[in-house]
Amino acid sequence: MNLSVNWVDGMLMVGKSHSGHSITMDGPIEIGGENLGVRPMEMLLLGVAGCTMIDVVTTLQKMRQDLSHCETRISAERANEHPKVFTDIHIKFIVKGKDLDSKKVDKAITLSAEKYCSASIMLGKTAKITHDFEVLE
Fold it and tell me: Which of 16, 35, 49, 52: CA 20 to 30 A from 115?
């Protein structure tokens, strides 16, 4: 996989993915950014959220669950000293659908966390990652 990030000005950067998509990143004003894009560490968490969501949605579909909505909400804490790595990450899944089986939702999340989600398993080497979920009809 090959990606690139090009510096534009100040702390503004444009990243280009292996698949050809671009994303704008920027730093906070206090370090010379202009708040024109997501922070790189936020991107890391967004990647985890997207990676695990793909796993959960595809697993629930394979389990024949009638899923109509899936959302992940991530909260995270970072170390106070450099390197300011993530130390605690909590992922909450909010799923909606018709007659969803909570046991199957739990199983899909567990499979993602323990087997399939490369991003969260990698971050789990330095951070404690926890999960919960809510099923809405």
Answer: 16
SS3 state of residue 38: strand
**Domain range 1-38, CATH class:** mainly beta
Q: How far apart are CA 48 and CA 90, in angstroms?
A: 11
Greatest C-alpha distance within the chain: 51
Pairing status of strand 66-78 against strand 4-9: unpaired
pTM: 0.92
Domain boundaries, the chain: 1-38, 40-136
Assign domain 40-136 to its CATH superfamily. K homology (KH) domain (3.30.300.20)
* Neighbouring residues of 65: CB distance < 8 A, sequence distance ≥ 6: 97, 100, 101, 104, 105
User: C-alpha distances in angstroms, 58 versus 10, 12, 44, 61, 112?
Assistant: 40, 35, 22, 5, 10
